[in-house]
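Allow me, if you will, to draw on your knowledge of protein folds for a short while. Thank you for your consideration; the sequence and its tokens are set out here:
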Amino acid sequence: MSNQSPFSRRGQAFPTLPRGDLLGSYESYPEAQAVVDTLAKREFPVAKLSIIGSDLKTVERVTGKLTYGRSALTGAASGAWFGLFFGLIMFLFSGDPASLAFVGAALLIGAGFGMIFGIVSYTLNRRRRDFTSTHQVLASSYQIIVDPALSLRAQQLLERTDPHE
């Protein structure tokens, strides 16, 4: 019996950084992505490329103040989606066109419970966090690494300019 996890890849016990030649360094991910897209359009085997982000930073952007009203509205919206989902499932499995009213009822019940949950959750966490935000992980620079056997071909394809791409 093997001690290997059923979720791990065969032959790779630990994650490793890709090795190869440096094709280029870029300040943003879209710049690196554009280079890979260009190579893909020119029939380069892009599976032999890797984009590596260096000097990772977590960025939290504050999007607004959290209030009871905003918590209630957000909770109602997510509850409405949940209710709509269950209402549609009930409608599909019932087969009765008259049960379409259940979809609306489930939506309203979901919105109500979502609103209550949003308000209660805000009340309990209010002292710890009184704002909304989004999180991102960004790199300071991005490098494209290429298989050494294909390095020269990739460089030649990038030097070639095609006005129709």
About this structure: The two ends are 53 Å apart (CA to CA). The longest strand covers residues 49-65.
